[in-house]
Amino acid sequence: MTQRSGKTTPPRRLAVAVRTAKGRTGASQRWLARQLNDPYVQAAKQQGWRSRAAFKLAELDDRFHLIRRGARVVDLGAAPGGWTQVAVRAGAARVVAVDLLAMDPVPGSEFLSGDFTEPAIQARLIEMLGGKVDLVLSDMAPNTTGHTATDHLRIMALAEAALEFAVEALAEGGAFVAKVFQGGAERQILDRLKRRFATVRHAKPPASRKESSELYVVAMGFRAPSE
After folding, report:
1. Which residues contact 139 (CB under 8 A, 6 or more apart)?
2. Beta strands at 214-222 and 197-203: parallel, antiparallel or unpaired
3. Residue 226 backbone zone (phi > 0: left; psi -120 to 50: alpha; other: beta)
4. Fewest Cβ atoms nearer than 10 Å: which of 33, 64, 105, 107?
């Protein structure tokens, strides 16, 4: 793995056994064991990333060269801030993160609290960035229900909303990245992406857990709508 975004390959670690604690459910026991034995969680702590998700964007950036030095970047659904950190460290000049959840400031970026689907929030985002943007990122995901079809439709709705914003916000030649789940309903958004972008790819970065159904759509070479 290259060092373009200041990252390293997470080290392999020996498995950590988790003792059973009174009052801890089986699900919480499994979650804790997974966290303790996840090399990306360990590496994130060692390297100062706010979450293991930072490695996902760093790996996508290594592969597709998404974050240009001096770029304007919007990070939708940014909390706790791992993707914002990656964008700043990769040399983006302006980074605005937005989320409904509170987020501690990331040096070199700005944070906007609110629902990005609201026109007032979108207008404020563009104002904060000083014009059109070079990259729109969305790692948003809904609270899962456990029902695969429902969860798939919910995350696709978020990706569609992110794309609608991107079409309005991106400069010519810009790029768009959004999380989706495998499930078959992504054809519609892929068709829209292919009409607006020169290159569209599916990618599952190594930092995505193998058992997860998440994928990322990566679209580059934005073609602005004709007036």
Report:
1. 53, 56, 57, 75, 76, 77, 78, 83, 179
2. antiparallel
3. beta
4. 107
DSSP state of 10: P
Report helix, strand or coil for 227.
coil
- Per DSSP, the three-state class of 12 is coil
Supply 144's token pair.
């899962």
State the CB neighbour count (10 A cutoff) for residue 81: 23
Half-sphere exposure for 29 (CA within 13 Å, toward CB): 10
How would DSSP label each residue in 90-124?
Answer: TT-SEEEEEESS-----TT-EEEES-TTSHHHHHH
| Residues labelled catalytic | 179
Using one digit for the tens of pLDDT, what is the confidence trace for 132-142? 999 999 998 77
Each residue's pLDDT tens digit, 51-61:
999 999 999 99
Has domain 50-222 been given CATH number 3.40.50.150?
A: yes
